[in-house]
Amino acid sequence: MGQRSILIEQRSKEDYMKNNEHPWRVLAVLCLAVLMVVIDNTIVNVALPSLSRDLHASNSALQWIVDGYSLPFAALMLAGGGLADRLGRRLVMAAGLGSFVLFSAFAAFSHSVSTLLVARALMGAAAAFIFPATLSIITVTFSNPKQRAAALGIWGATAGIAIAVGPIAGGELITHFWYGSIFLVNLPLGLLTLLAIALVVPESRNMLKRRFDFVGLILGTLGVFSLTLGIIEGPSWGWLNIGTLGVFTLALANFAWFVRYEGRRQDPLFEVHIFRNPAFSAGAFSIAADFFLLFGFIFLVTQYFQLVKGYSALSAGVRTLPFAGTVMITTPLGAILASKIGARYVVPTGLVLMSGGLYWMSQLSAGSAYFGPVVGAMIVLATGFSLISAPSTAVTMSVLPSHQVGAGAAVNETTRELGGTLGVAVLGSVFSSLFGPSVRTALLPYLHHGLTQHAINTAQSSMYAASVVVSKFPAQLQPSLHHSIVMAFMNGFHRACLVAAGVGIIVAIGGTLTLPKGPLTNVEHP
User: Fold this and answer.
1) Mind listing the pLDDT tens digit for each residue in 210-258?
2) What's the CA dihedral at 510, 511, 515, 521 to 10 degrees?
3) From the DSSP assignment, how many helices (H) and strands (E) are in the chain?
4) What is the average pLDDT across 7-20?
5) Are 93 and 197 in contact (CB under 8 A)?
6) What is the CA 508 to chain-centroid distance, rounded?
7) Residue environment code for 436-446, b if the CB has 16+ CB neighbours within 10 A, otherwise e
8) What pLDDT sits at residue 239?
């Protein structure tokens, strides 16, 4: 069965190459699709204070507004990659883009947290059918290892730039329009990309017909969802609450059943045996850690800029420019270095740098100067991010045989998106676990002096809500109470950054032991 799969995929790839006369044009179109999908991962972050104010969203709700996109994105990525291989990568990508545009319009005109969450979830689900197709098309388009490494470097740089540009674009739109404008901007870009796909990108698919794995899809999706639900709601439910323990148990049971079920299938949705290749596993975990650290950092720092430093949405977005500029410069450098000296040295270095940047952020105070400590930490963090993404992606795709390209692309993007989802969930929960109790401690002495229990519970839910509660106190009490709330925010912020730095160091050690030693251009399909 394996040999037949290889022969059929090779014939499919040869047919595709005959119809692909302009590979770099194809890459340019794919980068457009990546730009739109990835921007929506971060553009919403600068709108969080506005959403907290306009929709009365709690910390938990803000996490869900971010993860409401990332969670279905991660959970359905395997389905997106599997359907793209079976039905046609261009067809599935175009269908996903069309749906993404439609659901973006739905999100733009949402006027409640619940409606916005539904719209964001649908956008994330549509994105899951776009992203894996871009990576698998790149892999079949560029058969030469050097060209493939360059193409993946450009693809990775595009994703990195989109992540950094998201807060700036969001800040500009929030400043001049309502929060829905950050979603409405997807319409012209999406329609332009659809037209370019129709004109430039040839169709490709795996010619080996396989049944679709619905059971695997359900088990994997339930596992990812229940794990994220428990992490996000743990601070408000209580970590030892029966509901929290129940969803974690459900997640563990689903993942165990999923691995067992997929490992026995001839045509699995998720080829768990891929992880027997240590280089692939190391690359996948490095990508997950990269986005875990980045998404958690962006979720926290945009609130730090606006709610602690008092910057506007636009000003907060503009202040991420050092990160964006560094990513633009250093992402190609990461791909070049990996092609020369190997991912084993480049990727762990990037993880250590990200950990160093996050540790630096953990030392900031509410009054820290922007020019100096804040900018310096962002530059270190961005440099580390740039050294991880493209080389890790190149490793995961280069060590796979051609008939596993689609599965590898889906796994690659699932780990990327799941890492980002868990970054917001875990670090947001670390923050909330410290912020809420600290606010409660600060306000409890006033419980019998006009302050209600309901007001204290509301203040615990978010920095914005706490500020509103404090604003109702007598003027002479407000400065000290506001200081207590800011300190509660910084306490949670510091602890979350330290946890993130620790995760980066642990994955760096693992990558040093398992990533390939040689230059990436020497890594061929086995």
Assistant:
1) 677 788 878 877 887 788 778 777 767 877 889 889 999 998 999 899 8
2) 180
3) 22, 0
4) 50
5) yes
6) 19
7) bebbbebbeee
8) 78
**Token representation of residue 190:** 């999406």
Please, are residues 180 and 108 in contact by the beta-carbon 8 Å criterion? yes
Q: For the chain, what is the mean pLDDT?
A: 81
For residues 213 and 141, the answer to whether their CB atoms sit within 8 Å is: no
Domains in the chain, start-ordered, CATH in brackets?
Answer: 15-212+269-438+489-520 (1.20.1250.20)
In this structure, are residues 158 and 1 in contact, taking their beta carbons and an 8 Å threshold? no
Quick one: tokens of 331? 């992402």
Asked if residues 46 and 68 have their Cβ atoms less than 8 Å apart, the reply is: no
Tokens of 176: 């001049």
Q: How far apart are the C-alpha atoms of 455 and 444, rounded to whole Å?
A: 10
In the numeric block, which tokens belong to residue 394?
Answer: 């190149």
The 10 Å Cβ neighbour count of residue 210 is: 15
* CB environment 59-85: b (16+ within 10 A), e (fewer): bbbbbbbbbbbbbbbbbbbbbbbbbbb
Q: Which amino acid is at 308?
A: V
Specify whether the CB–CB gap between 307 and 467 falls below 8 A. Answer: yes
